[in-house]
Recover the amino acids of this structure.
């Protein structure tokens, strides 16, 4: 736990993030694919210590939901996971964080982007209604939206994404979708040119 807290403090200081009212730029408030300022300034590798989180530090974004469309479908064009329960079900923040973006956005419809303290961002879209606004601080498990079919969607569901520095990666690396549980592992994010390689760290 100590190692996890140290990494949070280090990243928060390096990003200039304040506990309240972080200074998001107009680009950060209005667009999904945005690099996190300063995230890879000091090194090319970031460790996400999901193995240090307690059960109260995370939540499956749509408890009881079933995956109906996987990451990478359509020749890699599907940048998230589609999870379905029923119309206007409660969507919950996966981790503690700050809402960076909350607005209608093209094919995403009503979308929310939450920036978390340890370098990860999660995206929740096609929402019937967003319950939070940009700048709001949220806790893991807090209701943030209701499922809908806004944007390019044929049925009510949650389109859920995980991103690092604006780049999407497979949410299955973070969550076991079948068990609706966090994979308590250390995740390595390595900057390689303009791309980021995200994978579980090798176990010692």
């Amino acid at each position: 736990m100590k190692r996890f807290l140290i990494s949070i403090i280090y990243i928060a200081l390096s990003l200039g993030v304040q506990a309240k009212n972080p200074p998001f730029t107009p680009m950060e408030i209005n667009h999904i694919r945005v690099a996190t300022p300063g995230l890879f300034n000091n090194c090319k590798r970031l460790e996400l210590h999901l193995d240090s989180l307690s059960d109260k530090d995370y939540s499956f974004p749509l408890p009881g939901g079933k995956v109906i469309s996987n990451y990478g479908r359509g020749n890699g064009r599907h940048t998230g996971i589609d999870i379905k329960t029923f119309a206007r079900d409660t969507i919950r923040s996966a981790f503690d964080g700050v809402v960076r973006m909350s607005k209608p956005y093209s094919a995403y419809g009503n979308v929310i982007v939450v920036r978390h303290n340890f370098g990860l961002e999660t995206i929740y879209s096609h929402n019937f209604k967003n319950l939070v606004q940009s700048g709001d601080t949220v806790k893991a498990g807090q209701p943030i939206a209701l499922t809908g079919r806004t944007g390019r969607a044929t049925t009510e569901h949650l389109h859920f994404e995980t991103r690092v520095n604006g780049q999407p990666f497979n949410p299955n690396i973070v969550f076991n979708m079948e068990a609706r549980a966090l994979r308590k592992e250390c995740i390595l994010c390595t900057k390689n040119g303009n791309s980021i390689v995200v994978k579980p760290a090798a176990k010692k």
